[in-house]
Amino acid sequence: MKVIKSYFTLVELLVVIAVIGILTSMLLPSLHKARQAGFKALCINNLKQIGILFVTYSDNNNTHYPIRDNTYEGQVSWDDLLGDYDGRNLTETQKQQQHFTLEEQGENFIYKCPASIQDRSPNSLKTYMINDSYVHDDISTNGAIRGVAGWANNAGWSINTSQIASSSNFIVSTETHLFNNLLGYTGAGGEAGARDYIQSYSPTKLPVHAKDVGGVEGFYIHGVQSFKLNFLYGDGHVKTNSIRSTLGDVGAANFMTGANTSWSYLDVTLWNALHND
């Protein structure tokens, strides 16, 4: 019995290839969206874990957030101060060195959003910051503003949790996707206030550093058109919002141009722990 062999014709092969191409083009956007959604969820979870670490630190430090009692001569970053509670068990020498290489520390995913496209190999980056907004030494002064912690008068300061007027309406931390936001480093992108987002992280001012990747898209990774970031609030909840929605009317308008903005326009925003909304 003669066996008849069957072969694909060139036309049939081209049709199959075309169908595969069409299906791939239909699936790839969905896969990309699913991947980004997964990264966003991990990023939110990171901030929630950091929020728990802040509470743990506060419970062991007279209800204060990190940085208090530091000096410029002995600076230790807020993330390294949390190193006593996050499982890293850093030595004092490690806390003082102001950076970690990937080999030394590895990518500590608690402090870096997996959706971030910034890279500073061989050094390790973080992508979160603490709210360092600060106006007037005396908090009873009209127009006084306080974030979580920072540097003022040549010393570290941090707010006492009892001073937070409305914890559910107070921003403790959000994201800064920058080349200079090194894990373990004090300053740079690791500490920022409302005015920094208006005057330095405006779409007109990005990239901040020549080696920042992606410009506006590389910074506002959760919504480039609406400038969305994840925000950790004083009560521990995390919410994805447009940065403009946190800055008040004047701040939101000035954000689009990067215009200098007086703190007097920002004292009744989510960036001020002393404001009760």
- What is the total domain count? 1
Averaged pLDDT: 87
Instruction: Label the structural class.
Output: alpha+beta
Q: Give a count of the beta strands, DSSP E runs of length 2 or more.
A: 9
Strand content: 5-15%
The geometry reads as globular
Q: How many distinct helices?
A: 7
What this model shows, in words?
- This protein has 277 residues and is of the alpha+beta class.
- The protein has one domain.
- The protein is 30% helix and 11% strand.
- It is built from 7 helices and 9 strands.
- The protein has helices at 10-59, 78-81, 92-96, 102-105, 194-199, 215-219, 248-255, and strands at residues 130-131, 134-135, 145-146, 149-152, 155-158, 171-173, 191-192, 228-233, 238-242.
- The strands form 4 sheets. Strands 6-8-9 form a 3-stranded antiparallel sheet. Strands 1-7 form a two-stranded parallel ribbon.
- Strand 4 and strand 5 form a beta hairpin.
- The longest helix is centred in the first third of the chain and has 50 residues, at 10-59.
- It is globular.
- The model has no long low-confidence stretch (mean pLDDT 87).
Summarize this entry quickly.
With 277 residues, this protein is α+β, with helices and mostly antiparallel strands. 30% of the residues lie in helices and 11% in strands.
